[in-house]
Design a protein that fits this description.
Length: 65
């Protein structure tokens, strides 16, 4: 399994400090935190939309179009 596309901006590549030619890949903590916060906000917005849909006799999607 490869890296999920959403995490690619947070990938950082570093050269080994053991004298070898290899590289180490890690994730930037701030980058990952931003991605997670953005996803959490999207989930909150989607939940609000679903609540509106469930509570509206018209279907509630008019305000999101």
């Amino acid at each position: 399994m490869g890296t999920p596309e959403i995490l690619i901006p947070a990938i950082r590549q570093y050269k080994h400090n053991t004298g070898g030619d290899g590289f180490v890949v890690g994730y930037d903590k701030e980058g990952v935190n931003k991605i997670v916060i953005d996803l959490q906000n999207q989930i909150i917005d989607l939940k609000a939309c679903l609540r509106t849909c469930a509570n509206s006799a018209k279907g509630g999607l008019d305000q999101y179009s």
